[in-house]
Amino acid sequence: MPPVEWKGVMSWCHSRLTVWGTKGEIKRFERSRWKEKLGAKYVEWLETSHHRVVHQFETDTPPVQKLAALSHRFPKLTFILVYEMEDEMQHGLAKVKRGVVDQYQTTR
């Protein structure tokens, strides 16, 4: 078998998504296909409380714009996304509600 030739290194975006809202709206969000819509892989549930749920996952790129599009379906929820692209030394924080994004980003 010939050796595998890598054409480049895959860069993953590590994300932590906190969803704030009513218990009913959070349940509706959890039942949606949000993982597929954001392209989330290796999803881990981290925390649940009465008005909040937190997930950690990886994507190919920061899913900020995909989350903004998804947020239109859940106008009563607030989304906080913290992400990191290690290979590009990029960190970001985004608050998303009803398609409106407040985003902060740093690059080393």
Please, could you describe this protein's structure?
By secondary structure, the chain is an alpha+beta fold. The chain has one domain (13-107): Alpha-Beta Plaits, CATH 3.30.70.1270. It is 20% helix and 45% strand. It contains three helices and six strands, in the order βααββαβββ. β2 and β3 form a beta hairpin. The protein is globular. It starts with 12 loop residues before the first strand and ends with a strand. The mean pLDDT is 91.
Task: Describe, in short, the structure shown.
The protein has helices at 23-31, 34-38, 64-71; strands at residues 13-20, 41-49, 52-59, 78-85, 90-97, 100-107.
Topology:
Elements: E1 13-20, H1 23-31, H2 34-38, E2 41-49, E3 52-59, H3 64-71, E4 78-85, E5 90-97, E6 100-107
Antiparallel strand pairs: 1-3, 1-4, 2-3, 4-5, 5-6
Number of domains: 1
Superfamily (CATH H level) name: Api92-like domains
At the first level of CATH, what is the class? Alpha Beta
User: Uncertain segments of ≥5 residues (pLDDT<50)?
Assistant: none
- Computed CA radius of gyration, to the nearest angstrom: 15 Å
CATH topology: Alpha-Beta Plaits
Key terms:
108 residues; alpha+beta; Alpha-Beta Plaits; 6-stranded antiparallel beta sheet
